[in-house]
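Input (structure):
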């Protein structure tokens, strides 16, 4: 229109020019990553949860993604409220993983449903609370020693309770030897009880599918109605700790 002032800015594609000053304010705001300051809780003391070490930042996988290690057995579901768990997870991720892609290694070894599991609905709730850019940066969830119950639960209800982006990022790892295909051994610390559990499963592979009797409650499902006897007699009454 006559009388209207306008300008045209042409940037050569082969020049290293920061184009942000030429963008509108709205475009700059859309390109800004989520501010994590609202999730950091400087006044809240998480030292008790840090000492449990169920959530720790480790090395990197073979793709260069930082590793967030989660040990299920170390999580005291009966004494930590879902709300505090959510605040702690967001605090750890926002303070320790401020940029770059990352992966999660979740160790389900010897987890007891009533003691160590917050529940799939709570995990979904926490995941949905993550800023969008953190969801995009999460590349893979390595699910170590999933067991039959976890496999069936996720296969049956996972698509309904988990976001599509998270559901397709889950990679089952039935044995530690398969984890080394994606992560070097020196990049992640494996608790001794996880190694022992892996050895037991290696010697009794059908336990993964709930076919053998399971007096150790390794799969997190009820044992078969029959028993060979020798395992239960030998190990009955022993308390397994890490």
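Output (sequence):
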């Amino acid at each position: 229109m006559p009388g209207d002032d306008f300008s045209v800015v042409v940037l050569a594609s082969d020049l290293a020019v920061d184009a942000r000053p030429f963008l509108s304010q709205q475009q700059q705001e859309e390109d800004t990553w989520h501010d994590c300051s609202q999730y950091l809780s400087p006044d809240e003391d998480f030292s008790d949860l840090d000492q449990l070490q169920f959530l720790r930042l480790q090395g990197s996988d073979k793709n260069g993604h930082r590793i967030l290690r989660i040990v299920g057995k170390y999580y005291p579901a009966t004494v930590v409220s879902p709300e505090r768990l959510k605040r702690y997870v967001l605090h750890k991720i926002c303070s320790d993983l401020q940029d770059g892609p990352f992966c999660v290694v979740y160790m389900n070894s010897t987890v007891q449903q009533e003691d160590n599991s917050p529940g799939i609905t709570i995990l979904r709730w926490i995941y949905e609370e993550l800023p969008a850019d953190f969801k995009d940066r999460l590349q893979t969830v390595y699910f170590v020693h999933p067991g039959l119950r976890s496999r069936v639960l996720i296969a049956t209800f996972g698509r309904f309770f988990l976001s599509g982006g998270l559901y397709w990022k889950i990679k089952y790892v039935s044995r530690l030897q398969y984890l080394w295909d994606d992560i070097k051994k020196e990049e992640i610390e494996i608790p001794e009880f996880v190694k022992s559990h892996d050895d037991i499963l290696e010697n009794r592979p059908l336990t993964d599918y709930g076919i053998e009797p399971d007096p150790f409650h390794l799969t997190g499902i009820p044992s078969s109605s029959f028993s060979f006897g020798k395992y239960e007699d030998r190990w009955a009454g022993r308390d397994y700790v890490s």
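Notes: The beta strands are 55-60, 66-71, 102-107, 138-144, 170-173. The first helix runs from residue 25 to 31.
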